[in-house]
Amino acid sequence: MSFLIKGVSVLGKGKADLLIRDGVIAEGGAGNAQVIDADGLVALPGLVDLHTHLREPGREDAETVETGSRAAALGGYTAVCAMANTSPVADTAGVVEQVYRLGREAGLVDVQPIGAVTVGLAGERLAELGAMATSAAQVRIFSDDGHCVADPRLMRRALEYVKAFDGVIAQHAEEPRLTEGAQMHEGEVATRLGLTGWPAVAEEAIIARDVLLAEHVGSRLHVCHVSTAGSVEVLRHAKARGVKVTAEVTPHHLLLTDERATSYDPVFKVNPPLRTAADVEALRAALREGVIDIVATDHAPHAVEDKECEWGYARPGMLGLETALSVVLDALGSSAGGAGAGGAGVDWDLIAERMSRAPARIAGLTEHGRDIAPGAPANLTLVDPAARRRIDPGESASRSRNTPYAGMTLPGRVMATFLRGEATVLDGKAVK
Ligand SMILES: NC(=O)N[C@@H](CC(=O)O)C(=O)O
Ligand SMILES: [Zn+2]
Ligand SMILES: [Zn+2]
C-alpha cells in the first residue's frame, strides 16, 4: 500500500508532495499510490503519548488496548506508553508482554508498556524491573502512577537500578500525608465548596526531593503531570544544575482551572487536581520555554458508575487522547495573541517537539518522533488547522465518556494518521 500526500505543509512550512511506500517516506515516482489531497493540511511526525491509561487487563469495561489505541490514532498518535496501574498490575514480564502483544494485535499505534516500580504499586518492595526490561516488551519507563513512590529509599534504589539500561522512573509526585482525603486543589474555591484540599506543596515537595535524589545517583527522572507554578520553579532550578530530569504537563492542566469544580461535576475531578489560572499561565510559559519538556495526556478512562456519582465517590481522571492536540493548539494559541485563521501563528515545530520528538526520546522509541524526510519510518499525522469542532462525548472511540471538554468548540482536527505507512485514520475517521 502506498500513498501520495499532495500539497501538504510539513510543520507548517511551504507545500510539498509526500510519498509513502513500504512503510517509509519514499522518493521517486508515485506509481499507483492512493492520492490524498492535503491542501491546507499540516504534516506532523506521529504524536507520542508518554502517559496513557488503557485499563486492560482488568477494567475492559472502561477501555481496552484496542479502543484506547483507536482513540489515540484519531488524536494523531502513532505511539502510546501504557501505564502500569492495571489489574493485575503490570509489575512482571508476563503482564507487560501481554499488553505489548495486545497492542501489536490491534495494530493502530505502537503500545509501549510501562512497568510498575513496586510490587502491586504497594510502595513496599521493588518489582522485577530487570525482567521487564529484558522481556519482549523491553520496558524502559517505570512508574507507580496513580500512587507516589513515597519512600525515599525505595525511590533511590529504583533510580539506581534503571541506570544500567538507561531506564527512567516516572514519578506521580504526591506526598500522601499531605493529600489525605483530598478532593480538589487547596485554595479559595475549595474553601467555598467545603471540599478537602490537595495543596500544591504536596506535589512540589516530592519533585524537590526527587530531583535531589536523581542528581545524587546520576539517574534519569521524569515527572508526571506537573500542575503548579511552584513545581515549574523547582524544575527550572534542577535543570540549571544539570539534573537529568524531564517533565510533562497534561492538556487539561493547560486549559482548565479549579473553578470548574463549582459545578460539582466529577468529570472535573482529577489527580493532580485542576489548579488556579496563575498555575495555568505558568505551565503554558514553561512548556513554551522547555522547562516542561512534553505534553502527555494522562488519558484516564472511567466507567459511568465510577464517574456519574457524587464528587466524593468519583474516581479521578479524564479522557485526553482524542482532544490533546486541539487543546494544546487552543492553550498555546490564545496567550500568544491567538492562533489565526487556518492555524496562522501556530509554532508547529514546537508542537512537534513537545508532542512527538521529545516524548519519543524520553521513551527511547527510535522509530517515532523522526523528521519527515526520505527513509524515515512513515509515522505521521495530517492536521487541518482551520477546522473547529464541537466535542461530543458520544462520538469518542474510547469506551468511556468522561471528557471534560463536552460541548466546547476547539480548533484543529486530525484528518489522517499513518503507522509505518499504513493508514489508521483517513478523512478524520478510523480505518479499522
Ligand atoms: N490522573 C488521574 O486522576 N487518574 C489516573 C491515575 C493518575 O494518573 O494518577 C487513573 O489511573 O485514573
Ligand atoms: Zn498520576
Ligand atoms: Zn496517570
UniProtKB/TrEMBL annotation:
Keywords: Hydrolase, Metal-binding, Pyrimidine biosynthesis, Zinc. One of its GO terms (cellular component) is cytoplasm. Transmembrane segments: none annotated. Gene3D superfamilies: Metal-dependent hydrolases (3.20.20.140), Urease, subunit C, domain 1 (2.30.40.10). The active site is at D298. It catalyses: (S)-dihydroorotate + H2O = N-carbamoyl-L-aspartate + H(+). Zn(2+) 2 binds at D145, H172, H225. GO terms for molecular function: allantoinase activity; dihydroorotase activity; zinc ion binding. It holds the Pfam family DHOase. Residues 42-229 form the Dihydroorotase catalytic domain. GO terms for biological process: 'de novo' UMP biosynthetic process; purine nucleobase catabolic process. Zn(2+) 1 binds at H51, H53, D145, D298. Pathway: Pyrimidine metabolism; UMP biosynthesis via de novo pathway; (S)-dihydroorotate from bicarbonate: step 3/3. Its EC number is 3.5.2.3. Its cofactor is Zn(2+). It comes from the Bacteria. Binds 2 Zn(2+) ions per subunit. InterPro entries: DHOase, DHOase/Allantoinase_Hydrolase, DHOase_cat, Dihydroorotase_CS, Metal-dep_hydrolase_composite, Metal_Hydrolase. Catalyzes the reversible cyclization of carbamoyl aspartate to dihydroorotate. This is Dihydroorotase.
